[in-house]
Amino acid sequence: MKLRKNALAGIALAATAALGLAACGSSAGTPAASDSAAASGEGITVYNAQHESLTKEWIDAFTKETGIKVTVRQGSDTEMSNQIIQEGAASPADVFLTENSPAMAQVENAGLFADVDKATMDQVPAEFRPSTGKWTGIAARSTVFVYDKNKISDDKLPKSMLDLANPEWKGKWAASPTGADFQAIVSALLELKGEAATEEWLKGMKENFKAYKGNSTAMKAVNAGEVDAALIYHYYYYGDQAKTGENSKNVTPYYFKNQDPGAFLSVSGGGVLKSSKHAADAQAFLKFITGKKGQEILKTGTSFEYAIASQVDANQKLVPIKELQAPAVDPAKLNSTKVTDLMTKAGLL
Fold it and tell me: In whole angstroms, what is the distance from residue 48 CA to residue 64 CA?
């Protein structure tokens, strides 16, 4: 009997503490989370395809702010989106986070996202979220052409990403075609230039490029002199530079700009599943990571992805977003299925 009383007292104390934390989190500028998940100890489940370290920083800060626990299941964009679609209404996921937006569009097209709360959407500029409002941008990464200055002079750099399909670039550049990062770039090309132009470019790419597994591996190959250049995302370069620089000391980033397909700014996405059993807490998490505190983690942390929401500037080491001159692309229209079909047809997958 005494043990039962102690157990009940412990539960009551935990619930009180959780309620107090949730109340603290409802002050100005923080998410108004419900106390249900925090009090029960259940928390929310995030299917995470974003970088594990970045998401951990977000989760730690969110839990400290609200008392709501977060369980993470880690996987790639495509792996996680396919799992959510397979699980359907029975999915245990409350929130889905990705590195690139085509996986978000895939889940949206399956009708599995709830609408994002307006307060969250209002924190994110329209160009960094889909027109449908079924999910939102949480961060961004820029396409960049990294090259070895000892092998390519500035006057010989391609004016457009499309130039990389030309015969003069045969054997001179690298990419990681099997990754979601590169497939997002091709998705943007498809949306911007259409199927015929994309198919033609992929055909030229097959003739010209060298395949590596992973953006960092492709950059290392440039640094080691194995290949002259590589088409990757910007943060691989800046992340390595912030450490030892040993994999990027011979590498220089080049931005295509001019609304070129090669200037594509890929939006990382976040959405709440329609099947979520803790919808209020899931929405609070999304509001937190797109809010000032969540975006400040991007600005001051080591991910070197772009902050895009709540008027938070990017990390000072990065080229400002306005200077990237990225093309306008509605993330909701990026078609991963069509892209993989085209890349398979071209012999790239």
Answer: 19
Read out DSSP for 223-260?
HTTSSSEEEEEHHHHHHHHHTT-TTTTT-EEE---TT-
**CA pair distance 32, 21, nearest whole angstrom:** 11
- By the 8 A CB rule, do 74 and 156 touch? no
Check if the beta carbon of residue 314 is closer than 8 Å to that of residue 320: yes
Contact 288, 295 (CB under 8 A): no
Element (H, E) at 55: helix 52-66
Token pair of 86 as six digits? 């397979």
Contact between residue 94 and residue 273 where contact means Cβ atoms under 8 Å apart: yes
Q: What tokens appear for 185 in the block?
A: 């770039």
Number of H helices, E strands in the chain: 14, 9
Which strand (E) or helix (H) includes residue 280?
helix 279-290
As a whole number of angstroms, the distance between CA 164 and CA 98 comes to: 28
Dihedral-angle region of residue 194 (phi above 0 means left; psi in -120 to 50 means alpha; beta otherwise): left
Q: Are 49 and 286 in contact (CB under 8 A)?
A: no
Pairing of β 44-48 and β 70-74 = parallel
Phi, psi of 139 (to 5 degrees): -165, 175
Beta partners for residue 175, in sequence order: 211
Which residue, 141, 128, 82, is CA-closest to 106? 82
CA 261 – CA 21 distance, rounded (Å)? 46
Which residues of the chain, if any, have pLDDT below 70? Answer: 1-41
Is 329 exposed, middle or buried (CB count within 10 Å of its CB: 0-12, 13-18, 19+)? buried
Grouping H, G, I as helix, E, B as strand and the rest as coil, residue 209 is: strand
Task: Write the CB contacts of 10 (distance below 8 Å, at least 6 apart in sequence).
Answer: none
Q: Residue 240 in contact with residue 303, Cβ under 8 Å?
A: no
Q: What is the pLDDT of residue 27?
A: 33
Q: What is the pLDDT of residues 206-245, one digit of tens each?
A: 999 999 999 999 999 999 999 999 999 999 999 999 999 9
- Distance (Å, whole) CA 116 – CA 114: 6
